[in-house]
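Run folding on both entries below.
>entry_1
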Amino acid sequence: MSSSSLLNHHKIHIGKQPYRCTECGKFLKKHSTFVSHQKIHSREKPHKCSECGKAFRKNSILLSHHRIHTGHKPCKCNDCGKAFAQNAAVTCRERLHSGEKPFKCKECGKAFRDNSTVLEHQKIHTGEKPYQCNDCGRAFRKSSTLISNQRIHTGEKPYHCSKCGKSFRYSSSFAGHQKTHSGNKPYQCNDCGKAIMKRSTFMDIREFILEKNPISVTNVGSPSDIALALLNIRESILEKNLMNVISAGKLFPRVQPLNNIRKLIMKQQPLNVVW
């Protein structure tokens, strides 16, 4: 250990924190930490990702972020073995298992697993939207949301699948797409045994079919009844922009759950319905 490192280390034991932030009053032990901390207040993010354009305060965070694009996941959760690109994600994952939520919102008391999420949440109360799009003028609470919005204007799709060459605008869409190549369907219905690739799809279909209005191939009704229901769904999409499944009497405010259900019904009872 060098003499300077030894001096910095010794400050931990004696509680000495010589660097004080003039913005928030926080004391810090090391000058490098103090400089990095000041960038929080200035919103300075000099380290930019060449793949997606996202910017960071520290180069170490940029290097960690870059693993998202390379697919390298060296950090594993001790509880479930799931691998992540970043240590922070592992910490958050372990808190998911333990139920720990140490970060609380001062306004409403809502608790969160990580500090960055509570900071973003607090902007809901303040109404702060510091990130504005130069193309459309829309303002956002998060810089990542601004970057996603800008890709709509530019048409940029920085996430490329090495298997099929398909490109994606968002990392979440890219991650979901990669599962289609693996063929892994980890979500299985206990009632009918059907396996689903995506958890969101599984929950949408299960809620519709098994919990709210139990139906099966035998009791769903005649093909003509299903056809009528599907046609009514189509009419709702075109006229009201709200999905109305008449056969179940359930309203869907989102398009995707309806499409998932429609595909399942059509697979079980093939019909000649024009969409």
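>entry_2
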Amino acid sequence: MPKLRNKSFTFRAISGIWIFVILTGIGIISGAFSVFGAETAEIVDYRTFFGFDPRTTVWIIAELHLMFGAFVLGVPMFAVTVEYVGVLTKEERYDRLAKDFTRLLSASFALTAALGGLLTFALFTLYPKVMNFMTGIFSESFYIYAFFFFGETFVLYFYYYSWDRLKNRKGIHIS
């Protein structure tokens, strides 16, 4: 069986994903600047974020957070599916591919959390009255959200760091 160049493929795949994310972010930001020139109506006096319109600021941060959040939620499902295919076909390359994708999660998860913190900061500073009202309504669900957030973090790190330890027990690792 010929030896595959997995490191080169992995590097290209990771580079391609990051280039896509960066170009998407640049596209969103450049689209936001075209929105600035299109506004002719009188703007209500809101706080600004480094001179930017608060709605556009929240929209850009929320969109980036949403894209990385979808990535962080989608990659584990893809990795488990690929790992399962590797168990069924007994081919090592699927296991390596799943582990390579899982390797992306720690950096992506940290960036998603940072964008979520930035979004929270932007919302509470730019729209304090609205967020005060929303906090009063959703305050009890914040605890549930925190539980799921830390639970997901624990499960993702456990999944990644137990990979080699449970190499011979893939059924347990996948479940």
